[in-house]
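Hi V.,

You were right to ask for the full record rather than a summary. Here it is.
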Amino acid sequence: MSTAPSHPRGVVAARLRQARQLRGLSQREVGVRMGLDKDTASARISRYESESMAVSLDSLFVLADALGVPPAYLLASTPAMADAVLSLGSMSESQQVQVATAVAALAELSAGQCAALIAQIVSKDSDHGT
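Predicted structure:
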């Protein structure tokens, strides 16, 4: 998906579908993991993904847990933000604080400085085989 959906249901639907496919789960499996009846689980997830039914805030948290993703992932408005949330979600809280501090510092740089620093970091990672 190259552009962000234009409304909240579209954002959640896109991220739900993406996370479900990333985990290799069927709609029924996700619904059952949420605690839904196995006979209605698939239909409920299908309605979320087709945007015909909104996900309540409580259900969003249960859904995120069922998918093994941070709730913020399901609300990420762009693919890059979604990827960042997944990466942050796999880190310890102290690592998350460090990354948040680094991102805030990057935001203070000019676009050119920021791009150069990120290129340098990415280059060092590829030099070390990571």
